[in-house]
Every structure is written in C-alpha cells, then in structure tokens.
Amino acid sequence: QHDQCLLLKTFLKEESKLRALQYLPDIIMLQRLLVDKYNRRISQQEALAVNVDSFLAGIVDTKERQKFKKLIGSFGKAWELVKEGVLNHGRLKPKKKEHELNCVNGQTPLAFLLPRTQDAGTCSVALVDYLINCTHNEFLGTYRRITRQEWEPERVPMDEVTKAHLIAYDMERDLMPLVFAHCDYSLAVGEGTNITYNLLALERQIVDRFLVGKPHVDMKVHTLLFRKDVYNVALFSRIRERIPQEELSLPVRRQIVSELHDLTDVYSVLAILDIVIGFIVSTGGSPDTYLDRYIHTTLQMPRHSSLVSSKAQQFCQLKHVFSLWRLLTAETGKRLAIAHREPFEHVAAKYRKEVPEKMKRKLRKALRKINISAFLNELVEVITLELSQWEETNKIEDYELGSALQDLHGSELDGLDDMPREVQLKHIIACWVMAVQLEADMMRMN
Prior knowledge:
Elements (H helix, E strand, L loop, with lengths): L5 H8 L1 H5 L4 H15 L5 H6 L2 H6 L4 H28 L32 H25 L8 E3 L13 H11 L1 E6 L3 E6 L1 H13 L4 E3 L14 H10 L7 H10 L3 H21 L7 H8 L11 H6 L5 H18 L18 H11 L4 H19 L10 H7 L20 H18 L1
Parallel strand pairs: 1-4
Antiparallel strand pairs: 2-3
C-alpha cells in the first residue's frame, strides 16, 4: 500500500514547507501595508535602526497595532518553517551574510520585513517567492504530474490570494484529525496495541481537502523604494560583466517617455526594473532576451506587471537595462523639477547651492552650446551613481562642474570647456533644474 501512495509520500516529505502556506495571505498583506506606509518615506538607515518592538510601539491605534502584530507573527512562523529552504534553495536570496534573517522577534530590524530585491529586505521578497513558486505552484505541478492531470489550473493574482486558494492547513486542526480518522487500533494478547493506517484513503482525503481545485498563483512583488535609494557604479559594472549593455536609440527613448503619462507610470516601471536588476546582477541572462518576456516568463510576474510603454515592451532587451534605468531616472528628475519639486532627495545639501545670479546668464549661454539631452543623461549618472563615490576620497563640492564631468566622469561632450569655472559641483542640482527648463523651452519652440 505504501508503494502505491507516491503523492502521499511526497506530501509528507514536503509537509513543513506546505504548512507555511497558511501564513502567506498575512505576509502579502503585511508587505502591502508596509509599502503603503513607508514607500519613499523611510531611509535605509532608519529601517535598520527601527526594530519590531519600537515599530509596534509607535502605532497609536490599538486595532492597527494588533493587526500588525498578528501579520508580523505570521511572517516569523513561516520564516521559521522554510528559512533553510529559502537561503539554500530559493530563487532569490540575500547576497551578504549580514542580510540573512535568523529569526523574527522584537529586536528584528524593520528592514528585514520591508520587501526589497537588495539588502536585508531580500528576505521578505525571497520568502514570498519561495512560498508561491517553490512551494504552492511547484507542489501543484507535482500533483498534476503524479495523477496525470492534463487540465491547466486557474490562475489567481497574488494580491487576491486567500487561504482557500492555497494548499494551506493547520497541522493540529486540519491535518492530524485526518490522520487519526484513517488509523485502526487493535489489541493482541502479548503484543500490545497494533496501529495500522489506511494510506490510500488518507491520500484521497488529502487530495480532496487540500489539492483539488487549487489555482496557480501569479507572483507580484511589492517593492519598497527607500527615500535615499540610489544605485552605484559597482552595481551596474557587475551587470555589464554579466550582460553587455547597449544604448537605446534617441527615437525609441522619446517614444517610451511619451507613453509614460504621469509620474505614477514612471515609478511603476522603475519598481519593476528594480526587481529585474536585483535578479540579473546575481543570475545574469541573455543580452537579447526581451525585457517583457523576462519579466513574465523567467520571473513569472503577472501580465498586469508591465512596462506600461508599448514601445518598451516591443523593443527593450536585457542589454538595454541600464539605458532604460537611466532614461526613467532622468525622466523622474525632469518631471519633478518642472513641477517645482525636489528632483533628487538623496543628494546632500552641500550639492544644492544656488547658482549666483550673475553666473546664471553665462551658464544658460554655455548650456545652449551643449547637446542638452546628452548632457542631462550624463548629469543624472553623476548625481545618482558617482557623487557619493567621488566624495569618499575627495572634498569635491568646490570642483568645477565642467571639469568634473570631463576628468572624473570621462565625458566627451562638446561645449563643456565653455562651462563657467564658477559653476561647481555644489551647484549640480541647480544646474540640473536649469538644464531641464532649457530643454523644455527648446522642445516647445520646436
């Protein structure tokens, strides 16, 4: 009888993983609430400084505090059950030992619960990915293979998942009563109690209770962006080592931007790109793989997680990741500047000095001699990737901006020699705003 029950044998082998699925809806809700509460409102340093106890103590409303306490408890229970699998066999895992979560308690930094594809938050995303793809969806595939099912299961988006959709059960309340209901006790003189199990009937009950009709779950990562979120040169250098990068053409870039109607669209695509970057920096990929295909086939993200722009879906490949990231980052900075909002929140105050009035006319004149689109592309790289790296070894805010672009960044743009020497790196944000306005004026004239 034991040899006939392959599905039951597989179920029992995977039982500790499957048991963790009962906590998945709570973990998804926790991620969503934390993203709503903290996206672009908390820095990485703050997230590491705040622990679970202080986070809960800071919630005034009693019902809300109890809700978060329950959700965090579910996260901790699931992590305890599948931690080894996530860290050793998960598709996504922390890159550094200090970013590996041991257990969840009152002293756990909040950063470990915030969904990210880099740093400590990788554990949160990796846990959900492991439960959905390496546990629920994988076991459904095993069930269909063993029972030779040819039907395709229904699909449900991650955000709509309830326990009823999952191979979810409570060990004491749901599973053990089934086991006891299918065991027989007998007494024999001189032999004591003899226990036998009706394994075939038990397997049928497990199939009926926990497997029949369960849908495939489509993963969607709720990625949080820190308020001072910046990439660095080293990250994109690692990507280039794995996947040689190419520039998107100017017409393609313009078409993509025209199809992103508001900042919400730009942020949405940046969030997806953040996930892609988190994966390819670890796993690499084929340069010619279309980004849209990678998102939905390799990462198994649902169709509504899209690049928004049809031109980006049609044209962008993994070899365009850096070019697309820079385009979107620059576009974010442009739209914020035009709306008179802070374009680069993470940049230190020493780089936010205003250009003296007497120099503004000279700067505008110099900018008119430069390819303004190319200038903004290079400037956004300096602001978001290179400033923090340069200042590790030098006091650079008084460095001439034109010279810095040539000497430190390696720019070959014509016209940089005409930049006023008085315009320095401490004016870089003001220069960005002025260049954005000049580009907008030129586009209106054309």
